[in-house]
Structures are given as structure tokens and as C-alpha cells.
Design brief:
Dihydrodipicolinate Reductase, domain 2, about 475 residues, about 20% strand, globular, alpha/beta, 9-stranded mixed sheet
């Protein structure tokens, strides 16, 4: 039994009860290269440069290849401080392994087309770090090849793509991890566990504050007209299943997030994180709202290159009586709360605020947690109470689960449910609907035919997978 067959079949078929330690895969602390999980990188841009080093630090993993339709291009990153493209990724990977080997080595191959990489390399897993419009195609293609997938968020471009991804991944039986890394953060897990165990009484309202606006990440937002392609850039491959649009410098890198052809703006970008945590605390991982109302926002013209919402507000009602209110931070839905740590100051208007009974609440954001009483934060789950899934490292959790066959902390069905809320809001905003009804079981929308028509979208030919 070779390594790949072992990784794909043994954990489930043989029912391994525990994670296999690294020492079982080779002699010494770091397994031999032939015994490591081989990882291919699909896309090398901002998020890949941020997260690939986590896999470098896992002794069970060997990054062997990178595929990107761009050869090398500067000004990637949230401040333009990084370099994207396959050559840049290859250099970073080779530099790391040269440091480990204490001599120059060239262990990483580079490809323009991810399909060629998958056919030529003996891969066990892939990290998908592409724009959102590629996520569903990559998931289907790689799942059918039996590859385990770490897919960066947001999970999907629309509800239909998300459902197809869930069905294909579950059918293939591969391990999936969505890059919603807040679930592997202590403060977010702590907040959700306290809420689930009734430390603020019965949960009434959840407020989710998100960033708004259109951030100019590439400093070229003024260059919205069609322009010649950068050298060594296969733009047709970059477009892939998305509808045809001429190349504009204002789209790349990162600013494609503000165009509905490629993404869903801040509602999906950061909603993929904070709505996901709201669902975790609400115990709504397997469902969704029954209705959405008070839907409003500032929407640029559909013909604009940056046409996603710059300001937004929507309220979701769930079958258990909980209401979730989501808005960009300009609305200041996080109230000033006195008598608590930081009294007299308003919270950062992003994050998640869980409101319970008798004025009790818990608020959590990245690196921050607070409550109506410090006593709430000192409490731990007692025997018989809910203990949420604990992961201390999102990337290692993915590798752990490849070996154990157990679900990751953010499996695909869970992230499909949370990102669906963001998609519903975008569908309603684009359709001008102030209220919609949602059947989470059938995944059907009523109350607006125009909004319902936006739930799904066909892929551009020839980018179809039967």
C-alpha cells in the first residue's frame, strides 16, 4: 500500500481511533520526504503567502508544487508588500527547504495550469488560494481526484456552488478544511461555549459587525478601463468559469473582491468569518434563517466595476427565536456598555455580540473578548455541558484529520451554512428586496423572484464539469 492510498483509505476503512503521530511515518522527528503528505498549492497571492508557512512548520507535510496563471507580480498583500505568482511561490518554498537542509535545494515545481500540476505530481492534498469564483470548480475537480482540500474562505461564490461543493466533497469522502480560522482561536471558542452553556441566559439577539466600503488594496482603483495584460499572465485561465470581462488593472490583485463576478464584497469576505462564529454560538451550524428582513444598503450601479455593497444592514430570524442582526460598522450596532472592562469606551464596531437575558452579554473580536460581568468569563464548562471542538492550529487540524478520518473543525457543510447567509443578503440587496423567506432544508428562496434567480449561476464554457 503506497502512501497516497494509505492516506485516502486507511483512516476510514480501518477505523483508526487516534491521530497517527509523526514518528510513525519515519525515523526521527521529521519523516523522510517519501513519507510526508505531499501538498500542492493552487494560487500564490496574498492569502497563500500568509498561510503556507503554517504547513512548512508541520513536520508531516512536504510542499512540492505551486500553480498560478501569473508568473510573478508585485504589490500583492493588504499593503502591497508581497509578490504573487507561481515563480514567487516556488522561490519561497525552495528557500524554506534549503534552510531546513542547510544547502540549496529545488524541491518545488511550478505550473501555469493547476490541472497539469495535479496530473503530473503525486499529491495527497491541495491548498486552494484562488479568487472566490474558482472555489467550486477547484473543489469538484480535486475531490474527484481524491485529494484532500484546504479551501480558503469564503467557501463559495453563490448558494448553488456551495451546495455542489458539499455534495461532491462528501461523496468523495476526502478531508476538507475551510480557512475560517477563527474557529481555531481560543477567544472565539470560549465565547461560543459560554453562550451555548447558558452563561448569559437564553440567547435573544446576536449582532454581527463587519467592515464596509471598498478598500483599495492594489492602489490601482482608478485604472478601471480595459488595458493590455501584464507579461506572463494567462488571463483566460484566471477568469476560468467566471463570465467574460476584459482585463482591468483595478481588479488585480485583491480588488476583484468588489465585483460580483468574482466575489461578494465585504459581506462575504468578512461575513465568512463573523457570521460563521455567530452560527457556532447559536448552535446553527446545520441550518439557516427562516427569514431575512429590514434589508437595506448602499449599492453602486450594477455596471460599475466595483459593484458590491459599500454599506448594508439585514436581520435574520431563526426557528429557535434568535435574531441575528448584521451591519457594516458605520451603523454602530455595538452599543456603549458601562460598568465593564473598558467602561466609557465604545467597542470596535466589528465582531460578534451575543445578547441574552437580564442585560447579560458576551462580545468577541479578534484578540478581544468581554462580557457584562467578568464572572461570566471565569466560568468553564461543567460535566455534562457542551464542550466545543477544540483546535489550536487550523492548518495542523487539517493534517490531523487527514490521518484520523475525523471531521475538521470547519467542515464543508458547516461553512456552506454560514456563507449562505451572506449570499442571501447579497441576493436580496441586488434585487432590491426588503424581505425574503428561506427554506434551509430545500435551499429555496421566496418573496423575491429576482433574488431567487441569483442563488445559482452557470459556469462559463468550456469550464464545466459534468
Amino acid at each position: 500500500m503506497n502512501r497516497r492510498h494509505f492516506l485516502q483509505k486507511s483512516a476510514i476503512a480501518l477505523g483508526f481511533p487516534t491521530i497517527i503521530p509523526a514518528t510513525a511515518l519515519g525515523t526521527g522527528g521529521r519523516p523522510a520526504p517519501s513519507e510526508r503528505i505531499t501538498l500542492g498549492l493552487i494560487g500564490w497571492g496574498t492569502i497563500a503567502t500568509d498561510w503556507t508557512p503554517n504547513f512548512f512548520q508541520d513536520e508531516r507535510v512536504q510542499v512540492v508544487s505551486v500553480a498560478d496563471p501569473m508568473k510573478k507580480y508585485g504589490h500583492y498583500g493588504y499593503r502591497g508588500e508581497k509578490t504573487g505568482g507561481r515563480d514567487a511561490g516556488q522561490e519561497v518554498v525552495n528557500q524554506f527547504y534549503s534552510t531546513v537542509a542547510n544547502k540549496p535545494v529545488k524541491t518545488c515545481s511550478s505550473y501555469v495550469d493547476f490541472r497539469e500540476m495535479i496530473e503530473k505530481e503525486d499529491l495527497d492534498a491541495v491548498q486552494v488560494s484562488t479568487p472566490d469564483h474558482w472555489h467550486a470548480y477547484m473543489a469538484v475537480y480535486c475531490a474527484r481526484k481524491g485529494l484532500h482540500i484546504y479551501g480558503q474562505k469564503p467557501l463559495s461564490l453563490n448558494v448553488g456552488d456551495g451546495r455542489r461543493m458539499v455534495d461532491e466533497v462528501e461523496k468523495a469522502g476526502i478531508t476538507w478544511q475551510t480557512g475560517s480560522q477563527q474557529r481555531s482561536d481560543l477567544k472565539f471558542r470560549m465565547a461560543c461555549e459560554l453562550v451555548r452553556n447558558g452563561r448569559i441566559g437564553k440567547l435573544k439577539v446576536v449582532k454581527v459587525g463587519l467592515p464596509g466600503g471598498h478598500t483599495d488594496w492594489n492602489q490601482m482603483s482608478a485604472q478601471k478601463d480595459a488595458a493590455p495584460l501584464p507579461p506572463d499572465f494567462d488571463y483566460e485561465l484566471w477568469l476560468g468559469p467566471a463570465e467574460q470581462i476584459d482585463y482591468r488593472p483595478a481588479l488585480l490583485p485583491l480588488n476583484w473582491r468588489h465585483n460580483f463576478i468574482f466575489s461578494g464584497g465585504m459581506i462575504t469576505d468578512f461575513g465568512a468569518h463573523h457570521i460563521d462564529i455567530a452560527h457556532w454560538g447559536m448552535n446553527a451550524d446545520s441550518t439557516g434563517p427562516v427569514s431575512m428582513s429590514n434589508i437595506r444598503g448602499t449599492m453602486p450601479a450594477a455596471t460599475e466595476l466595483y459593484n458590491t455593497a459599500t454599506a448594508f444592514h439585514f436581520e435574520c430570524d431563526y426557528a429557535n427565536g434568535v435574531k441575528m442582526i448584521v451591519a457594516d460598522k458605520s451603523e454602530e450596532i455595538m452599543p456603549q456598555v458601562v460598568g465593564t472592562p473598558g467602561a466609557g469606551k465604545k467597542f470596535d464596531h466589528t465582531g460578534i455580540l451575543f445578547e441574552g437575558e437580564d442585560g447579560k452579554w458576551i462580545w468577541v473580536n479578534r484578540g478581544q473578548i468581554s462580557a457584562s460581568s467578568m464572572d461570566i468569563l471565569r466560568q468553564q464548562a461543567e460535566p455534562g455541558e457542551t464542550k466545543l471542538y477544540e483546535s489550536k492550529d487550523h492548518s495542523r487540524n487539517f493534517i490531523d484529520c487527514i490521518y484520523s478520518g475525523k471531521p475538521t473543525i470547519t467542515p464543508i457543510a458547516t461553512s456552506h451554512r454560514s456563507i449562505t447567509v451572506a449570499h442571501l443578503a447579497n441576493c436580496a440587496l441586488r434585487a432590491g428586496a426588503e424581505k425574503i423567506e428561506w427554506d434551509a432544508d430545500k435551499e429555496t428562496l421566496s418573496g423575491s423572484e429576482k433574488a431567487a434567480a441569483l442563488l445559482r449561476k452557470d459556469w462559463r464554457k468550456p469550464w464545466t464539469l459534468d
